[in-house]
Amino acid sequence: MSKDDKSEKIRKIFEAIFNSQHRLRNLAPEFKWTGLGNLLGDYGEFLAIEKYDLKKAPSGSGNYDALRKDGKTVQIKANFSAKQIGFRGEADYLLVIGITDSGSFEEIYYGPFELIRDVANYSNRDSKWMISVSKLKAINNKVM
Question: What domains are there in the chain, each with its CATH number?
Fold first, then answer.
């Protein structure tokens, strides 16, 4: 199976999951039906690694998810509906992608990790750094 075939089959599965979420919201609107937790994170890492030609980090690499060809570390974050992105630790680069209802994605930010850490706010309640998606997009437009 080619890389593109594999990616397309997985994308279709996620499209079906997101369609199911919409149906759940119609059936029981008192629930949010937005959280996919680790499933979304795993899908985001898969997409980023495939599309940006990264190498998955070894198991137990706490602060990063992938490696670039130049050996630099990359922390990957996937977002579906949150207005803020939270992160811990540090890497050389931060890659944030937004997953759409169809299972495809858009780049929200890909650039130096320290640039984002310097403008993020620390949440004592969650013990992590937080930054809005809109701020990430604005910074990404300047970096590009």
Answer: 37-143 (3.40.1350)
Tracing tokens 């207005």 back to the chain, one arrives at 83
pLDDT tens digits along 66-100: 999 999 999 999 999 899 999 998 899 999 999 99
Tokens describing residue 83: 């207005």
Which DSSP state fits 136? H
SS3 of residue 1 by DSSP: coil
The full DSSP string for 10-26 is HHHHHHHHHHHHHHHHH
Give pTM, 2 decimals.
0.80
| Amino acid letter, 104 | S
Relative to beta strand 73-79, strand 66-67 is antiparallel
Instruction: Find all residues with CB under 8 Å of 53, minimum gap 6, and list them.
Output: 69
